[in-house]
Design a protein that fits this description.
By secondary structure, the protein is an alpha/beta fold. The protein has six helices and eleven strands. A hairpin with a 4-residue loop joins strand 5 and strand 6. The longest helix has 18 residues.
């Protein structure tokens, strides 16, 4: 369980994201139609976008505060982020992609690598080039890469959007294992109601940049 403080106002031309929520959960779901602000909120948590005003806290760490003039760089936030399109490195094989974010001083890195590969069932794919992977396989590799960095929280932006319904049902159990096996809280974005019901402890429903009642 991790405490999140999300007090965010961000203006993008005519679109305004305004969220003021706090939650202590293992999995926070962000649900709503495309363009409603879910991905934009993830990007502010990750440090890819900076709000115009507000505050973001993950646990005890203040990551952003317009009042206190705090804006921790993305690389120092210790947050794992898996975008919709996975963004794997095409010049590396699966092993190279997973270990890309590994810190050399991490003495438990090999053990963590083997644990993630086993949990996400990636062993048969380790020498494969990413161009030879299916959409679901790419997402599992991207999740493993994010988790190799030992994040305090993992942000997943519609990780199953690129796969069909049958593959979603096979991949979702891998995602569900992250929480109990690795003790990493999740913020999970989707516009699939079945997914959000299966995975989230609490759900924020988005519409036109704001959290609304379901």
């Amino acid at each position: 369980v991790i405490a999140l403080t999300l007090d965010v106002t961000l203006r993008q031309q005519s679109f305004v994201l305004h969220v003021r929520e706090s939650a202590s959960v293992e999995v926070l779901g962000l649900f709503g139609p495309s363009g409603s602000g879910k991905t934009t909120l993830l990007e502010t948590i990750a440090g890819i976008r900076s709000p115009d005003e507000g505050e973001i806290r993950v646990g005890e760490r203040q990551l952003f505060s317009s009042r206190d003039r705090v804006n921790v760089p993305a690389r120092d936030r210790h947050i794992g982020y898996v975008p919709q399109d996975a963004l794997l490195f095409p010049n590396l094989d699966v092993t190279g992609n997973i270990t890309y974010g590994h810190q050399p001083h991490d003495v438990d890195g090999r053990e963590r690598f083997e644990s993630l590969v086993s949990m996400l069932e990636l062993t048969p794919l380790l020498k494969r080039r990413v161009q030879k992977l299916s959409g679901g396989e790419k997402q599992r590799v991207a999740i493993a890469r994010a988790l190799m960095t030992r994040p305090s929280i993992l942000l997943l932006d519609e990780p199953l959007a690129a796969v069909d319904r049958a593959r979603r049902e096979r991949i979702l159990p891998y995602v569900l294992r992250i929480r109990p096996d690795l003790h990493v809280p999740l913020v999970y974005v989707t516009h699939d109601e079945d997914e959000i019901i299966a995975i989230a402890d609490r759900v924020l429903y988005f519409d036109q940049g704001r959290v609304v009642s379901p």
